[in-house]
Automatic annotation (TrEMBL):
This is EF-hand domain-containing protein. It comes from the Eukaryota. It comes from Alexandrium monilatum. Keywords: Coiled coil. Residues 53-80, 164-218, 274-301, 421-455, 491-552, 614-664, 725-779 form a coiled coil.
Length: 1174
């Protein structure tokens, strides 16, 4: 009822609702029956009689089987609304897309019509804009349609996706048409652009012509016959000419640049528009060059007139400046001669200075104006139109102006020195008075110095007074000398008088220096006495410290052995005293050296006297140093004896430890590789402990010996002590070499043990990889072998089994019943009966994807198991009806179909095989599909989810080929991980052994490196196998798809041919009918019914026949429309060919309709005439 309802949605929806209600009621009844039977089965188990219990269990099992068969029939009916809604959604989406696609195609037609107008003569921007607008509208419509299709396609399910894909080819066709139209628009746009740029170029050339004309009009005043215009008028006219020429030149440059740019642009157009445009632009360029030449002539004439005017103006300015400069020279002539200046009175000098200042101001103003005029004209002449002659003349005028300015500056300087000459006389008189005062001060200082020399020691007050007077006098003399030097440089007029005063000051300064030298000699003698006295005190202190050292050495000079404790105390006291004395003596030497340096700053005689006294003190100090050295040498020998005994005791202990370590190491090496691992480890630990203890003792002893050696080097120069300590260190080095050799032996033993273990682990891992690869290759052999036909036969067999299963559910047949219905007898079914039944099986023939050839049916029969003995057994037949699934993701198995409240029995892991015990059912609460199944691995039964509410698939239909693919894929992945781990393991161990240079580890590293090529070989074999598996899967998928497409094409071709035959027969029938009624109507119209007894009745009968024919044509149109709507989404294949044939038939129907309508109108007109005539 649902399938046959067609477009009657109310009837279909009512049927769907009734089906759902009936399905729920049936499901409820089945659930109650299952509960009841389960309760009865539990009760039967409590029966005591085995026979009764067995019989009851058998009967209840039959009822359970019937109940399961009813459930199997009910399951397809439970999803009837979902299937119906999917079909409705697919139809709705297809209608929505067609509603958008049809207007888009119409817009494409309109855009094509608008583009055709562009090929005419009257091309304009308006037509181009209209065509572009139509093209844009069509492109927007097609793009919008494409976006909608993409959006729908992204959200579509399989059913809807098939409908959407049918519309994509029509969208691509429309896009191709639009691309062609864009190319046509581009050529038209180029033609419009060429016309526009030619128009713009012509307008710019016209502007250049007008600008040149204005420039020619501007030089009119020069052409009126007047040879020389006033300067201001001349410059104004020249300015106007230059402005007009500049404007014209700008217009010409703009036009030239525009034309050149457009010439480059025109080269990018199509050949014909490009050539025409370039030719016209070159003509415009020639006209532009003629205007430019005319403009150049105008500019040249203007430049010549401007140069003449400039020379005339510059001459007037410069001549006026030179005249004013001469007037200033006449006014300032009195200042040029010093004799005249001295003879002139102050009033005359003042008057001459005022007159010179006024003349200077006027001359400077004239020079500034002349220079300003010339500079401005030089700036103007530096443009592109500059004249060399004009620039040269301007430079000459500039030189004359500079000469005048130099003269003005010279006379200004002479006038400004008048006051200085008068002030020079006053400065000389003042300097003479100061020189006399300085001379008197020097005489007083000399007398005070002579008074000091007359006394034996000189009083401190007299010395201080003399020093103060000498310093003040020296400052006065220096000040006076600087004053005379300053005045000599400033006063040119009194320079000779000042030079005489400077000579007098030099004599006074020499007299003062003599007195100061006498004072310095006396002061140095006092300094020398102080230095010698301080040094004497330090030498006495040093002698006292050396005496204390001699007292401390006294106990060691007594004959006989000194007790140990007393010797240590006395040695310590001696060392401290010697160190203190050494410090005092060294400090005294430094002090005397510093005093020698201080004496060098004195005069030579004072320095000699001071050094003589210091040499005597230095001799006494050297004697003290020699005595102290002898004492320290004896002390060093006593200390060396003590150090030698201490170090030798340590060396004796070390020698015993080295021997112990040697014995332990020898025991380990002699044991060899045959020693047990535990014993070997204990021996290695023992040898390592003995070596560590010996090494620690050796380090302690070496530090002690080195420390004592450094002490000896610092405290004495005893070669014997240093030699003994060096021998002890050499002995320690021999012990070190022995310990190094023992450590090397121990290290070799450890490396040998580690190398053996590393190699065994790596080789075991690589051999395990090779075995796994060999096993995987055997496992994947069925996949990579060429078994395409066998696998296709599996697909065909699955489709046949699915069709039989649906038929069994519909007819409530068991497997045995189905086997007998196919012709099976005595538990066997032969190939002929199998192929014959399937060929005529109605349920299978109704499926569009299940049309099989005889060869395909035979291959499917063999795949079912009939090739062994030629017949298919009942057991083999029933085995194919087992519904099994393969697990794709981890999911829980529960004890109830409802997840909420159910108990989890176990986790089902990926790639497990599950056998369905019942038909899949839906969890009413969560809305997910679940199935009761049994795990083949452990036989556990429970409910498992087939797919989640968010699309996650947990169970997929099982086939032997699919299960093998999953297993091989998982094994390949696991092997990849194992190979990567092996690479990492080998690389890590080789990297750890990278620092080894020799010994067992180097050999182990070489052996480990050999393992990597073996792993690489396994990886290569694994990659090759993976590639073969992928290629085999690809070939199988391609073969299955090709076979299904072939069968689908056969079905479509039969359906398309049926449409064509049906409509062709109807159109041919209409053609015969039209061929009869139209000629009859034409004859009546032509004769106006003259050959008929009743013309009106004949015409009326002909009109009725034509109307009946039109109704038949309309029905034909309706039939064609229905068929075209059914196949409108098909862009290729049999349906596409059928659409072309149906369109041709539609055209024929249109011609029939037009002929009949034309004759109906003619008959009506003839009847009207006939009625009017009557």
């Amino acid at each position: 009822m649902i399938t046959a309802g067609g477009d009657n949605l109310e009837e279909v929806q009512q049927a769907v609702t009734e089906t759902e209600i009936a399905a729920k009621a049936a499901q409820s009844a089945i659930g109650e029956a299952r509960i009841y039977l389960n309760a009865k089965q539990a009760a039967v188990k409590r029966y005591e009689s085995d026979k009764v219990r067995t019989m009851a269990a058998t009967e209840l099992a039959k009822l359970q089987q019937q109940l399961q068969e009813a459930q199997n029939k009910l399951n397809p009916l439970k999803v009837v609304r979902q299937d119906f809604l999917q079909r409705q959604a697919a139809k709705k989406v297809a209608d929505e897309i067609l509603e958008l696609l049809t207007p888009a195609e119409l817009d494409c037609d309109r855009a094509e019509e608008a583009s055709n107008l562009l090929a005419g003569v009257g091309l304009s921007k308006e037509l181009l804009q209209q065509a572009e607008l139509a093209l844009k509208r069509a492109a927007d419509q097609v793009a919008h349609c494409g976006k909608v299709v993409a959006q729908k396609k992204a959200q579509a399910t399989d059913v809807v996706l098939a409908e959407i894909e049918k519309c994509e080819d029509r969208i691509k066709t429309a896009e191709g048409r639009l691309a062609q139209l864009r190319n046509n628009h581009k050529e038209a746009a180029e033609r419009v652009t060429c016309d526009t740029l030619l128009k713009e170029a012509t307008e710019k050339l016209q502007a250049v012509q007008e600008a040149v004309s204005r420039a020619a009009d501007a030089e009119g005043p020069f052409l009126m016959g007047v040879e020389e215009l006033p300067l201001e008028e001349t410059m104004g006219t020249v300015k106007a000419c230059e402005t007009a020429a500049t404007a014209a030149n700008t217009q010409a440059s703009v036009c030239r640049m525009f034309v050149a740019t457009k010439l480059v642009e025109a080269k990018r157009f199509s050949p014909k528009p490009s050539q025409e445009t370039q030719a016209r632009l070159r003509d415009l360029q020639k006209q532009l060059e003629s205007y430019v030449r005319k403009l150049g002539d105008l500019k040249k004439a203007t430049a010549e007139r401007k140069a003449k005017a400039l020379m005339r103006g510059a001459e007037s300015y410069v001549a006026e400046a030179e005249v004013l400069t001469k007037r200033m020279a006449e006014a300032a002539s009195i200042f040029e001669d010093d004799n005249k200046l001295c003879e002139a009175s102050s009033a005359e000098i003042r008057a001459a200075a005022d007159e010179t200042q006024k003349a200077e101001q006027v001359a400077v103003a004239a020079i500034v104006e002349a220079r300003k005029f010339i500079t401005q004209r030089q700036i103007e002449s530096k443009g592109r139109d500059a004249s060399v002659e004009v620039s040269a003349e301007l430079i000459k005028y500039q030189t004359r102006v500079s000469t005048a300015q130099t003269e003005v500056a010279r006379w200004r300087k002479l006038a400004s020195t008048c006051e200085q000459r008068l002030a020079a006389k006053r400065a000389v008189e003042e300097a003479k008075g100061k020189v006399a005062s300085a001379e008197e001060s020097v005489k007083q200082v000399s007398e005070m110095v002579k008074a000091l020399d007359g006394e034996e020691s000189g009083g401190e007050d007299a010395v201080k007074a003399a020093e103060t007077a000498a310093n003040e006098c020296q400052a006065t003399v220096k000040t006076m000398v600087r004053y005379l030097e300053t005045q000599s440089r400033a006063q040119n007029a009194a320079r000779d008088e000042l030079a005489k005063l400077q000579t007098s000051m030099k004599e006074i300064q020499e007299q003062l220096e003599h007195s100061l030298a006498a004072m310095r000699t006396r002061a140095e003698q006092q300094v020398v006495k102080g230095l010698v006295a301080e040094s004497e005190a330090r030498v006495v202190e040093a002698e006292e410290s050396v005496r204390k050292v001699s007292d401390a050495e006294a106990p060691f000079l007594i004959d006989g052995d000194v007790p140990s404790e007393q010797a240590v105390a006395a040695l310590t006291e001696l060392e401290n005293s010697a160190a203190a004395a050494h410090t005092v003596v060294g400090g005294t030497k430094t002090f005397i050296a510093m005093k020698r340096l201080a004496a060098r700053r004195l005069s030579e005689s004072a320095t000699t006297a001071c050094n003589k006294d210091l040499d005597n003190l230095q001799a006494r100090l050297d004697g003290l140093s020699k005595k102290l050295t002898d004492i320290r040498k004896g002390m060093s020998e006593r200390k060396h004896t003590k150090v030698k005994r201490e170090v030798m005791a340590k060396i004796t202990d070390l020698e015993q430890l080295v021997e112990a370590a040697k014995e332990a190491t020898k025991s380990l090496v002699d044991g060899g590789a045959d020693t047990k691992e535990v014993d070997n480890k204990a021996a290695r630990e023992k040898a390592a402990a003995a070596q560590s203890k010996a090494v620690a003792t050796l380090d302690t002893t070496r530090k002690l010996a080195v420390q004592r050696q450094q002490d000896v080097k610092a405290s004495s120069t005893d070669a014997a002590a240093l030699t003994d300590l060096t021998k002890m260190l050499d002995q320690l080095n021999r012990f070190q070499q022995e310990l190094d050799r023992q450590q090397g032996l121990l290290r070799d033993q450890e490396h040998r043990f580690v190398a053996t273990r590393l190699l065994s682990e790596a080789i075991a891992e690589v051999e395990g990889l090779e075995k796994r690869m060999e096993a995987l290759g055997q496992l994947a052999t069925p996949l990579v072998a060429d078994q395409k036909d066998d696998l296709l036969a599996s697909v065909w067999l699955e489709e046949i089994i699915d069709a039989l299963r649906r038929h069994m559910a519909l007819k409530a047949l068991s497997k045995e019943d189905m086997f007998r219905a196919m012709g099976g007898q005595d538990g066997r079914l032969n190939e002929a009966k199998f192929t014959g039944f399937i060929t005529e099986f109605p349920a299978l023939c109704e499926q569009q994807d299940s049309l099989f050839t005889q060869d395909e049916l035979k291959a499917a029969f063999k795949r079912a198991g009939g090739e062994a003995a030629g017949d298919l057994t009942l057991e083999q037949f029933c085995e194919h009806f087992r519904r099994r699934f393969v697990v794709t993701a981890t999911v829980s198995m529960t004890d109830n179909i409802a997840i909420k409240g159910g108990k989890t029995l176990r986790k089902v892991d990926p790639n497990e095989i599950m056998e369905a015990l019942e038909e899949p059912a839906q969890d009413e609460v969560l809305g997910i599909v679940r199935v009761r199944a049994k795990a083949e691995s452990d036989g556990k039964e429970g409910y498992v989810t087939i797919s989640g509410n968010r699309g996650t698939v947990y169970l997929k239909p099982y086939s032997a080929h699919t299960a093998l693919e999953k297993k091989v894929e998982q094994s390949l992945q696991e092997l990849t991980e194992a190979i990567n781990d092996a690479f990492k393991h080998v690389d890590k161990k080789v990297d750890e052994l990278r620092t080894a240079k020799a010994g067992p580890l180097v050999e182990a590293k070489a052996e480990l490196s050999k393992c990597r090529p073996r792993v690489t070989k396994v990886q290569y074999i694994q990659s090759a196998l993976k590639k073969k598996v992928a290629e085999a899967q690809k070939k199988l998928t391609a073969g299955i798809d090709a076979e299904r497409k072939r069968r689908q094409e056969v079905v479509e071709r039969r359906s398309a041919q049926s449409m064509i035959d049906e409509n062709t027969a109807a159109v041919n029938s209409l053609e015969e009918r039209v061929g009869k009624c139209v000629p009859t109507a034409e004859a009546l119209v032509k004769s106006c019914g003259a050959d008929q007894e009743s013309p009106a009745a004949a015409m009326e009968a002909a009109e009725r026949e034509l109307q009946a024919t039109l109704e038949a044509v309309d029905k034909g149109h309706t039939r064609l429309k229905v068929h075209l709507d059914q196949i409108k989404a098909s862009m290729k294949g049999p349906f596409s060919e059928a659409r072309s044939a149906l369109v041709k038939l539609k055209v024929r129907l249109g011609s029939f309709e037009s002929r009949c309508q034309k004759q109906v109108a003619a008959i009506k007109a003839a009847r009207s005439k006939l009625e009017a005539a009557a």
